[in-house]
UniProtKB/TrEMBL annotation:
Protein name: Glutamine--fructose-6-phosphate aminotransferase [isomerizing]
Task of the protein: Catalyzes the first step in hexosamine metabolism, converting fructose-6P into glucosamine-6P using glutamine as a nitrogen source.
EC number, UniProt record: 2.6.1.16
Gene that produces this protein: glmS
Keywords assigned by UniProt, alphabetized: Aminotransferase, Cytoplasm, Glutamine amidotransferase, Repeat, Transferase
Keyword check for Transferase: yes
GO cellular component: cytosol
Protein's organism: Candidatus Zambryskibacteria bacterium RIFCSPLOWO2_12_FULL_39_16
One GO term of the biological process aspect: protein N-linked glycosylation
Catalytic activity: D-fructose 6-phosphate + L-glutamine = D-glucosamine 6-phosphate + L-glutamate
Single GO term (MF): glutamine-fructose-6-phosphate transaminase (isomerizing) activity
Active-site residues (renumbered): C2, K602
Pfam family, one: SIS
Subcellular location: Cytoplasm
Amino acid sequence: MCGIIGYFGKEEALPILVNGLEALEYRGYDSAGVAVFLEGEVKVKKSVGKVEILKKSLKNNFCSGSHLGIGHTRWATHGIPNKSNAHPHSDCQGRIFVVHNGIIENYKELKSYLQKQGHNFKSETDTEVVPHLIENFLNSGKDFDIALFDTLRMIKGAYALVIIDKENPKILYAARLSSPLVIGVGKNENFLASDPSALIGKTKNVVYLNDGEIAKISQNDINIINLKKKKTPYEIVHLGWDLEQAQKGDFPHFMLKEIFEGPEVVRAAFRGRIKSKENLVKLGGLEKVADQLKEVKRLLILACGTSYYAGLVGEYLFEEISRLPTETHFASEFRYRDEPFDKNTAVIAISQSGETADTLAAIQKAKKHGLMTLGIVNTVGSTVARETDAGVYNHAGPEIGVASTKAFLSQLTVLIMMAVYLSKNKNSSKKLLEELEKIPKKIEIILAQSAKLEKLAEKYKNYKNFLFLGRRYNYPVALEGALKLKEISYIHAEGYGAGEMKHGPIAMITENFPTMAIIPQNSVSEKMISNLEEIKARKGPIFAITTEENKEISSLTKDIFYIPKTIEPLEPLLTIVPLQLFAYYIGTKKGFDVDKPRNLAKSVTVE
Ligand code: M6R
């Protein structure tokens, strides 16, 4: 969840660290800090709040001329956001400087052991045990490499660590266990980052560290060893991401830019993969398991947050199109269930970042039970992509806004293609694929009417609660629409299947409790109309997302946003877009930083 950056190379380190931290800020923004080596000294600067504040404090050529440094932006887990809890953390002597992402679960016992040995702690963090443990081993006469190995062996939990040893400034150390860390490979320079997006514009060549690996990096060299002290080979992965994709351009926020990327994101997901005239879906990433997939009788979709809601749409898609019984579970619940498994079950893990701790743990559990695991992942080379047996990349480009928007559209597109791929009756898919090709244009029509949504957001922005209702394919859209509003505007919102409304939530309906109704004309719109009648009878305001074909809705409300018509399985690709924009406009009208909503982090790498 925290952001880590490290640099060793020919360029001035500090601007690279600060740029990297700005790019990583979406991972955590409680406090930030840097440590840079110059002329035998390591200088540290920390600040509370966003990276902007750290940047302002780095005046008067702070450490100019340094070529080696580390930086961190924090999402607090242990200890409040203040300067002493901000990273980098150091040992008693001020020799070792550490930035950390993850949680050291046994830090309390390690801390009390080290305190008994005379170590003086300055923070409430779990991280601070790392430099002190290394120091403790150094004090007992071990050299740095051995001290680091012994320290890593004592730590329980998850870590991505980057470490400077002031006594050996020719090496930058890094270690990983269950928390992502990537090496950026440059010319006469190397980088370390918790997320490859921090390296965009610097290098497109990266090496993903595996669990239990330690990297020793210099300006021109990368050495990777495992905890058994054996040198391990590494593979350089080429990222296709461009600098433009990681910049806001003319948009005021990444969130808005990413919503407006919707049409291209859907195109990029199906480009080269579908041939509607031949009813053909070609998913290269699944070829190696194509024969095994023919034997699959049941699917389990595992994911968190927005990816979970995409998975819920997937449940309807696989059942209707592939005729495969499918269940979608929160990865965080699945990992602790004790259900019986059938070997003909395949797991599909969905993750934008590919680094979500719960999703990774769910994959491990599935593998332990011998299930085939597939990934739907946006970040190339990420841990989910590497840990699954096969998978399909989203090709959505980097998603910087903390609230996931474009990733949802690309996940839905991939799920639709996978449902056709797994279908035994391909002939029925022609219409679906033809319609899918028309979706980008239809999203453009929605985006062109964003001013209407902005007006409606103005009207609705002061309500304190919202109910989001949908049925069938639009039930998960109701859940995702409510999540977006909560994340961005801090307004309480609940998503519900419209049929369930009368079993409880209707009790809350008053003239101060509006309902967002997702009701395109389809097989269940008649049923939805009856549900909305019940709301109107209780004076609840209604805002409807619908299609021109739905004539009945105008008798229930004047607040209507029309979207183009498509076939039912594809509706979520259209219905979610106005809800994303609605959340965006309400959030910005309330003056919130919609790209970095409070308490959230983009990539949830702790449990
Ligand atoms: O990277 P992932 O798709 O695995 O992330 C899952 C969730 O943490 C993520 O979707 C989260 O719910 C977002 N804040 C939603 O906007």
